[in-house]
What we know:
This protein is about 35% helix and about 25% strand. With about 300 residues, the protein is of the alpha/beta class. Helix 3 (about 95-105) runs parallel beside helix 5. The longest helix has 16 residues, at about 165-180. It is elongated, with a radius of gyration of 24 Å.
Amino acid sequence: xxxxxxxxxxxxxxxxxxxxxxxxxxxxxxxxxxxxxxxxxxxxxxxxxxxxxxxxxxxxxxxxxxxxxxxxxxxxxxxxxxxxxxxxxxxxxxxxxxxxxxxxxxxxxxxxxxxxxxxxxxxxxxxxxxxxxxxxxxxxxxxxxxxxxxxxxxxxxxxxxxxxxxxxxxxxxxxxxxxxxxxxxxxxxxxxxxxxxxxxxxxxxxxxxxxxxxxxxxxxxxxxxxxxxxxxxxxxxxxxxxxxxxxxxxxxxxxxxxxxxxxxxxxxxxxxxxxxxxxxxxxxxxxxxxxxxxx
Length: 295
């Protein structure tokens, strides 16, 4: 990372009584980056991010946001927006009043109408929060976090409760924020969203950062797979080392999928062997996630 990081976490430790929730956690997030911090349930990512956001004090280690302690609210508060997993809006306020209130508290300026239009809530401007659907409340959460185009935005499960179209609209809005220079920190259980949108991903398990890197770097840590069935036993050995999975299908694991798939297809053609229900694909992020949680 060539420039000074927006977020710099160094050997962070957090405990609840005798439970060590976060253990020597270190990571950095660069300017303009979309960094996804993912983890199994109880991995410690929520506690870690609450510390980065300034809501919790570290037991040991250092956390810097924009070069300051996140507890220094005067230095960092107006420069960050936070979309929590659950909204805390007053049910008696209208949508417009809720956005205006966040703007006042955060000391960020923006056009309320602009943000409501981005999240498709303009027609709900005078509707009370208590009358919104779950998906509409999530869109309101995003509007308040992105209000004023903050330099740093935390998105905690941003698309929970949203339909496919609303998810697409939200990610389009995130892309526009990034074009304006915002840095995004994401936590989500939708691994396909992290795989599609994140520049880098940190994977936590049991309080520690187990792996970190781009999607390509993470997925290369596990082999790709080729699966197929044989209509009948073959006398000619397969050209690659293979095993059988739980369903009896042939399984080949490879770190060179194009080469080995070509080799297998050439073998089947030359020997007249039909590879039934052939499936081949690279490792996905959820495979890496399962491998970490299964350690």
